[in-house]
Amino acid sequence: MYRLLDFFWKNNLPRWSILIIDTVVCAFALTLAFLLRFNFASIPTQDLKNMPIDYAMVLGIRFFSFLFSKTYKGVIRYTGSKDSVRILLVVLVGSVILLLINFITRLISGVYYIPHSVIIIDSLCTMFIMICSRLAVKAVYFERKNPDRIRTNVLIYGAGESGIVTKRTLERDADIKYKVIGFIDDDIKKKGRSLEGVFIYPPDKLEELIKDSQIDTVIISILNISSTRKSEIIETCLQQNIKVLSVPPVSKWINGELSLNQLKTIQIEQLLERDAIKLDVSLIEQQLQNKVILVTGAAGSIGSELVRQMLRFHPKKVILLDNAESPLHEMDLELSDKYDANRFEVVMGDVRSTDRMHNVFNTFKPHLVYHAAAYKHVPMMENNPSESILTNVMGTKITADLAVEFEVEKFVLISTDKAVNPSNVMGASKRIAEIYTQSLGKKTGIKFITTRFGNVLGSNGSVIPRFKKQIEQGGPITVTHPDITRYFMTISEACQLVLEAGCMGIGGEIFVFDMGKQVKIVDLAKKMIQLSGLTEGRDIKITYTGLRPGEKLYEELLASAENTLPTHHPQILIGKVKQYNFEEITQKIETLITLFNSQNNTDIVTAMKDLVPEFKSNNSIFTKLDN
Fold this sequence. Notes:
The protein is α/β, with parallel strands linked by helices. Helix content is about 50%, strand content about 15%.
């Protein structure tokens, strides 16, 4: 007997057997309907005589309606709401047909073969028995596969359509063993109600439920939740050491259905992201549509995302220029899968090569230039000042000069918050690039625009990918200083603001982005450990390595009312910065570039400090030059 039951649970019954069982259920339901109709007393003689015809007619209609609608083809143990609705409709349609037959026989022979009341009771009994029997089989199956003692208790945050789908997805799985304890929803109207047998609780009950019900996991299943609210929920869960998962947007569901594998652990980027930026889409499209756009550093984090966003606005062609072969090849493959080849052009080239860059400008004659090519890692440039001069200064100068020669409409320089009161070679080199393009624009009338922002989440070589790798390796996580803080912005957010600022700029501005609040790096590391389901100190240690050469404890953005002007966009400000004489600054920059050949770092950095008087080295061998 046990082997028979075990075989039943491990194998699906043949479809024909389900059809026969459903027909037998209909026979039982009809018998029950007659008994109920006549109060389990004697059935009238005429109705007894009609019974063979009644059974033949009812079972025949039910059999063929099941055959036609294929209700017997569903896997019983995975019966869902769609299966239940189908059974209701099929039985209802069959009952309507029986009523019509009754009326026809009444007109022809003057008698009803089946009492109307029996048809109605029969339809209700058939629906009830068929649906309940399927749900019972499903419940027993999952109870057998997932005993309560080994289940993971789950709360689903969101009692809408997505929450329901999430619950059903969890229940379909026979291996992970989740048990949905309840729903949490911000809609106060849903408080105290139940959804598919599970109660809905208000948000203020979250912590109480986590403690009282021994919740292991919270799944955020609200598709249109604000970033602020999402962060609040995650923070509450992390404080209770609860694992948090999220449901992806509907657009990413496979064939319109949610898969258990698509429930992902919350990433630190989601915890730090802000609400979506409101862009002036019409203004951006007006500037980019039917234009040839050159993006330097197009294989980097910012450059590649700029390209992706630009292509949405129907430019004539986007030129992707970079000297990093493999990343540029990856971009080529990615874009080739999505766009026609004539919408973009991939060009291997170095912004430090005058001849190569001249050929690029002469061949494509771009209307707009977005200059993202740069060296960005502070310690690397602190140890290699001559290279920062070649790429960040000379490369910018070559590209900017060609923009003037070929009369581009706008030139947008991607800069950094490290150019503000620079404490390192990298930041100073970017400030020199800003000074040159501003001065050149003032002299020539070409619209040179600078955008300045802090760290971007997940960019190549940034702190978050490094922490993730260290966690995967079992630690320790290395932080330079317990008090070090940084501004963070998502790559997508930064690029959106670059496009918006590029549109509103009339030339000469340095646009500063509102980066929000500074984030303490050690807090970032702790949250990443928690999000990984680990415990700091026990599973992963945090060690402090000391500030690196040129590194600041705090970054500056010139984001106060005293040194910025507002724009129509709340997240974009215009920095008030010193203006320079073009001839004087050009002579100094050309002298600086020629110092590359000497490879004397002291002379190079001294010349940089002469160009940028506010450049004061921090934790660096060049600090002595400030004395």
